[in-house]
Structures are given as C-alpha cells and as structure tokens.
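Structure (tokenized):
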C-alpha cells in the first residue's frame, strides 16, 4: 500500500477555501502558455500542478493562450502546446485566448481612465524608465501624468484607431510613483504595435501588457486559483489592484517555485538560440528539455508525471538533479520495455563445433518484469554470431566474466561457449573469435552441470539486420551553464550525440513500433525515431541502464 503524502501548501490553501465555502466550493485553474516557443520540462511541472489540482478537487482547468504579443506568436507553437498537454494525459475544460478578451480589456482600460486611474503617456521608453526611479529612489511624474480624463479617453481611442506609430504613446496605470514595489510605479497597460495577429488579424494595433491582460482574463473566466511561478510575487499587488479598481471577479494569485534542472537551460530565449544557431536539430531534438524533445527521446507521459510528483511543490527556488528524471524513466521502462539484443561494436564469433549450415530458434522473454515474461519472441541462432568487441579480452583479468582464451560464458537465451582461439587482422586487432559450444547447456533445458558467471548478448550473422543508433547524452558538460562565465553555449557537451551508423540488430526489431520503449540488453533503453524508415531504422537512446554520470562525478 502506497504511503499517503502530505498536502502541499497549495492544496492546504484550497482545502481551507473549500472548508470556508469560498468560490462556491469551486476549484478552477488555468494553464496560460505564451505561444512563442515549445513547452519544456518546467512547463510540464506547471501543467501537472494546474491540471492535477483541478482533478483532485473535481474542478476544471482552462487552456488559455497568452497571445498578447503578436510579433512572437505562431500557430505552430499553439499546435505543439495542445499536443504536449494531451500527450501528458490531461484534458482542458475550455481552450481560450487572451485575444478573446481584447474588446473587454479595452473597455476595462476605458473604465480605469474614466476613474482617473490610467493615462496616455507620450514619453519614450527610456524617459519612462528614468522617471520610474530606482528601488531606493522614488519615481517622478512625467509631463503627461496629469492629463484630463477626456483627453486620455480621446488619445486612447486614437491609439486604437491607428493614428500613431509604434512607440509614440502608451497607456499607463496611475498608482503610486513612490511605492517600494517598482511594479506599482505607473506600469504600462497598452502599447502601440502595428503587427498582424495570428487570430485577430489586423483588427488591433494596440495590445495589452501581460500584467493587465493576465488578472483580468482570470477574472473573466472566474478562475479561483491562479497559480504562477515565484517571479510573479512582486506582480501580485498589481494583479489585485486592477481587479479591485475594476470591481470584477476576485481571482487570487498564488506562487510556487519553477522547475530548474541541472545540465540544461530552461530559458526560451536560450533554447531558441540553440535551435536558430543549429546547435541542435530543432525544438524536438532529443537533447532538448522540451516536452517534444523528451517524447522523441523515448520518455513516457507517466515518467514525467511521476517526476513532477516526486519533486513536489515548493516556495523556494532549487536545482533539481537530472538524475531524478532519468531514474523515473528507467523505473517506468523497466516494467514496460521489450528486451531485444543489439550489437553496437561487432566482432564475429564462430562456433567451430556447431553444424555450419544449421540454424535453430531460441526463445527469449519480452520482459522478465512483466507477468509471464510479457510473452516470448523467437531468436534465430547459427554457427556464426556477432558479439560486442568489449566482451572479449585477449589478456582477461581475474574477475573478467566474459570471453577470453580458455574462458566460458553463456550466450543469452542460448548455449554456454568456451573460447578456444582467436584471429587478428594486419593491424593487430581481433577479427574473429573461435569457440566451442556445449550442446547440453541450452537455456531452459540445461543439463550440463556447468555454471558460468557471465552472460553476453549476440546476434546471428546470417539473420542480422542493421540500424542507425543515436546515443544521446547530456547537452551541457557543466551543472548550471547559465551561471558560468561567458556564453552559455561554450559549455555544450560536444559528445552529447554519438551516431552508430550500422549497429547489428536482432531480426525481430524490424517490426519495432514508434512510441514503444525497448531495452537493448546490457546497453540501455531506446525508442524508434521519427526519422526512421522501413529500409533505414533509427533508434534513439532514451537513457543508459545505470547512472554513468554519477560514477564520473564520484571519480572527479
């Protein structure tokens, strides 16, 4: 029986709200991505939190695209965001857009102007920034702060009508230029931007700022718990000020620590740099921390949900170890992945006492962790097989339990063999290993009485197929590339991708299916890549069998 975990601080707030009959005992959250890039593992935490809380308390979650900045938004990003959320296993109640509310937001702005709480400012961005002061020095009013209500209403209407060029005027809230909170020093509400919008076309040439659109959109949708990351704490007084002055539904904002993970970057700007400057092959490159990259690499929705659940919901920033995410996918794939044999650095092994033209069928479990081994597959066996070069040593040390002169080993699902001899090529490299097999030692019916400590994988030469294998590793070679001196791209791990163009695969793998996990025995977990074709299979390494980086850190 699983131990019941304690409530996180957000769940405590919700249970108190429900107990006090706030919001009519209703829980309604939202996930509000900006469609200017692909979602990453940090967004996955927010998705799991917003949708998970609503599910737990029989509530609803809206998917609302924050499309207030037309110059950075693309329909491609909208489609990818939808796909990622559904793939993670969640369903939204309504799909909405901040642009749905442009007319309402415009009227809200007019209400604030009418109350003397907003004004049109002709100052430049530099002049506004200078007049705001510093955290230790109060701001000063610009010359336009005391414009009349009527003049502000007229100028705002003219801004909407397209009378002025970009940057000529802005609408600002009139709050407190001496506030210790810089966000309350007459923040911008609207700016002029003559840009085509992916949904509203050319209807608008003024667009609301996020701080104005965010809370009002929450209120329009009657969101009860607006969950944001910690950097929005200083924005909360402004969120509440707008709602209070407009007298609209009192949505409440709560903040949690965003997910930061080592050996990668989470900034959309930096991820966009990696894509645009061709350090990676697109947003779904398996080395990227994007959800689409993780999916292509072979991560499962369950493993990511489990990871987000394990790291919990905190109020303080911390750096999560990538090894925990890798642990979650290993744990998931160990239970579900089909076992197959693949030789990546082959050397030929000839069984000299096995009939040369004979072959037989061995049987291997699909997954020993599953009930009844997950079924069985047929594996052809013959007198010549491929094994890994590293499984043979000419001068084997005492505790080497694989092949070397005079040593015995079991071939997985087949026979015990003994190394009798080996050949070398003109460069002194082992080119062929000669062994004899013990006929009575067949797996499943072994009567030989011989016990060996080692088992190795293999593929029959005459039945072998080939595939390209892409061995992915961590994208950066330092734990926190954003904190290092210089350009973060200087710390990219040049060994983050190794391609084996012709690995030897067992014939059953020609039937590999996209979206399934495979354990290549003794090598790691893999999945079929989207670039794969029937005549050229490509597999991506999802994760190694063990945490190799932890060993390297200990060595260091």
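Design, position by position:
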């Amino acid at each position: 029986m699983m131990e019941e975990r304690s409530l996180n601080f957000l769940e405590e707030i919700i249970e108190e709200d429900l107990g006090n009959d706030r919001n009519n005992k209703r829980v309604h959250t939202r996930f509000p991505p900006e469609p200017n890039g692909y979602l990453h593992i940090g967004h996955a935490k927010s998705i799991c939190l917003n949708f998970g809380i609503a599910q737990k308390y029989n509530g609803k979650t809206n998917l609302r695209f924050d499309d207030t900045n037309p110059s950075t938004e693309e329909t491609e990003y909208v489609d990818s965001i939808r796909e990622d959320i559904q793939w993670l296993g969640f369903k939204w109640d309504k799909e909405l857009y901040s642009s749905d509310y442009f007319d309402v937001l415009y009227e809200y702005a007019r209400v604030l102007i009418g109350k003397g709480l907003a004004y049109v400012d002709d100052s430049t961005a530099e002049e506004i920034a200078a007049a705001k002061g510093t955290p230790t020095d109060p701001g000063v009013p610009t010359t336009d702060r005391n414009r009349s209500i009527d003049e502000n209403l007229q100028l705002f209407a003219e801004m909407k009508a397209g009378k002025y060029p970009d940057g000529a005027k802005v609408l600002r809230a009139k709050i407190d230029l001496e506030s210790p909170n810089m966000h309350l020093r007459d923040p911008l509400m609207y700016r002029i931007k003559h840009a085509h919008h992916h949904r509203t076309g050319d209807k608008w040439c003024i667009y609301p700022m996020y701080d104005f659109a965010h809370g009002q959109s929450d209120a329009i949708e009657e969101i009860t718990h607006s969950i944001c990351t910690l950097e929005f704490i200083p924005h909360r007084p402004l969120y509440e000020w707008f709602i209070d002055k407009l007298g609209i539904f009192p949505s409440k904002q709560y903040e949690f620590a965003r997910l930061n993970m080592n050996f990668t970057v989470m900034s959309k700007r930096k991820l966009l740099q990696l894509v645009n400057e061709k350090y990676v092959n697109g947003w779904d490159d398996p080395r990227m921390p994007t959800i689409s990259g993780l999916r292509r690499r072979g991560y499962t929705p369950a493993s990511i949900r489990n990871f987000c659940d394990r790291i919990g919901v905190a109020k303080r920033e911390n750096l999560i170890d990538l090894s925990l995410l890798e642990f979650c996918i290993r744990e998931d794939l160990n239970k579900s992945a089909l076992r197959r044999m693949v030789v990546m650095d082959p050397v030929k092994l000839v069984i000299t006492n096995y009939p040369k033209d004979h072959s037989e069928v061995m049987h291997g479990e699909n997954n020993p962790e599953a009930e009844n081994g997950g079924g069985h597959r047929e594996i052809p066996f013959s007198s010549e097989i491929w094994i890994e070069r590293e499984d043979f040593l000419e001068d084997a040390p005492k505790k080497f339990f694989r092949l070397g002169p005079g040593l015995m080993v079991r071939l997985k699902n087949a026979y015990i063999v003994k190394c009798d001899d080996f050949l070398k090529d003109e460069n002194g490299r082992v080119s062929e290993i000669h062994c004899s097999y013990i006929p009575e030692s067949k797996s499943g019916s072994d009567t030989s009485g011989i016990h060996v400590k080692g088992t190795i994988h293999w593929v029959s030469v005459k039945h072998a197929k080939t595939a390209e294998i892409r061995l992915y590793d961590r994208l950066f070679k330092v734990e926190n590339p954003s904190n290092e001196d210089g350009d973060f791209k200087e710390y990219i791990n040049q060994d983050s991708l190794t391609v084996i163009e012709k690995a030897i695969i067992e014939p059953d793998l020609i039937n590999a299916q996209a979206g399934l996990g495979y354990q290549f025995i003794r090598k790691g977990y893999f999945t079929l890549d989207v670039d794969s074709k029937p005549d050229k299979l490509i597999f991506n390494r999802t994760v190694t069998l063990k945490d190799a980086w932890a060993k390297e850190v200990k060595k260091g």
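Reviewer-requested clarification: The chain has a mean pLDDT of 94. The longest strand covers residues 416-424.
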